[in-house]
Amino acid sequence: MQIRRRSYLLGGLFLLATNGCALFIPWLLKLAVESLQSLHTAPHPPSFYGGLIIGAALLHGTVRVFSRTTLLHAARGIEYQIRDELYARLLKLDQSFFAGERTGDLISRFSNDLTNVRMLVGFGVLNIINSFVIYIAALALMIRLSPALTVFAVIPFPVMIFIVKRMSASMFRRSKKSQEELARLTAAVEENVSAAPLIKAYCREDAAIASFREASGRYMASNMRVAQLRGFMIPVMAATGATGTLIVLLVGGGKVVAGALTLGDFVAFNGYLAMLIWPTIMLGWILNLSQRGAASMERLNWILQAEPRVDEPAEPAAIAALQGDLELRNVVFSYGAETILHGISLKIAKGARLGIVGPIGSGKSTLVRLLARLYRVENDMIFIDGIDINRISLALLRDAIGFVPQEGFLFSRTIAENIAYGKEGASEDEIAEAARMAGLHDEVCRFPEGYATLVGERGITLSGGQKQRTAIARALLKDPAIMILDDPLSAVDAKTEEEILANLANYYGNRTVIIVSHRISALRDCDLIIALEDGRIAEQGSHAQLLELGGKYAALYREQQLRREIEDY
């Protein structure tokens, strides 16, 4: 920020020099006119003043370049800094924040809103300083030339200030509304582009076009309201300057004829008055820019001031690494007013395997996400190695966990880069070995580009099963102490599932493994299996114990066995 202050200070000094040259030119015109009126008695000929005017104009143009580049470069620096802070803040925020926000709206804040702020701290600041200096200096020189004529020249200005003040609040509201409509339009485009295959599959192209046209129409209408207000303001500014000039011509011309004002003073006075016209017109543009910038900054501050619900512990526990002993004590969790988990308690020793099964909405995914603190956990509910999870630093906790979510996200990069995301600097052999354990290697080798195959937006070029296995390989490569698999094999067939489970059994070793699955076959080798229902543990035990119990787990197992026999038949 110290560098920014120096840039603005230097830019302000260049602006003072620029305006000094500009203000000197009307005075030189006054001397040139007086020299023409008295050629024999004037100290210098008109050509001398003409040369000075040319020199002042050249110097004015040169210094103007430096003033603009210095201030605009400072604005670019501020934009860069805010963008960095925005991105860093987004990475700190947790899932509860993103669950309520649309990607397109956040993208709009990074692009359009940041541009408006840059314009405000760049062109806006430049013109504010420029207008302030011009007004003060030009009015002072006009008063020196003719105080009475200055009063007549500025008569329209109070009217203009009153109108601008009344319109500024309306401009802010309209500008903010325009930014919000642009965010909705951006969100609509982002959603439709991502869902292009689905739109085509359901022949919803016309509906998507109509929806986009409606969002675009609302954005255009909100922009038109801003433009209408701006279109009214700028002529008001221009009319103010023109009215002042007309009054000066009428009153000042009479004074020149009467001999109360010299022709040179009249020419200089009109030159300074003309210099006020452009800053006056710019006031309307500056007002529009400032209101748009203020509205955009308010939207950006909403992100910058957002606080994550999952934050770092004030005094993290002094531990080097996590081993994987897990204990849950009466875990309760709610999404708002809706309670999802009710009193979940269990212990998982290091190296043990826990299986979780249950119907949709029973709280399976929520439970495993709490273990990685993707949601806020109350104190004294979850312990790892005997330490409250809220006392473990997030970096240490998440580095110890390999998490494979239900829908693995893939970046628009190569298969190798997506797998290597789990471990920085991974070698080709390590990537291939992780893919082999995930049952993906043979299929990748059949691709023309192999591991260099680009997967497209969100992995669109891969099948559902291939995307899931890529996500599994990413977690395996990480070599975590705790492996969490949230229904990672739902998109693969039974044969591939068996192959992957056999590979993973050799990989688990002393790692603590938690598997969420709707298929009993993925859980049968687990040391402990819990069946969730309505956020509570309905049944728990080993695979054999639960079958012997003859409850819902056993019924689900028989159902799946029967379905498999029918499919094989």
From TrEMBL:
Keywords: ATP-binding, Cell membrane, Membrane, Nucleotide-binding, Transmembrane, Transmembrane helix, Transport. Pfam families: ABC_membrane, ABC_tran. It is a multi-pass membrane protein. Residues 9-292 form the ABC transmembrane type-1 domain. GO terms for cellular component: plasma membrane. The keyword Iron does not apply. The chain crosses the membrane at residues 7-28, 48-66, 119-143, 149-167, 232-251, 271-289. Residues 326-559 form the ABC transporter domain. InterPro entries: AAA+_ATPase, ABC1_TM_dom, ABC1_TM_sf, ABC_transporter-like_ATP-bd, P-loop_NTPase, Type_1_exporter. It is found in: Cell membrane. CDD domains: ABC_6TM_TmrB_like. SUPFAM superfamilies: ABC transporter transmembrane region, P-loop containing nucleoside triphosphate hydrolases. GO terms for molecular function: ABC-type oligopeptide transporter activity; ATP binding; ATP hydrolysis activity. This is ABC transporter ATP-binding protein/permease. It comes from Geoanaerobacter pelophilus.
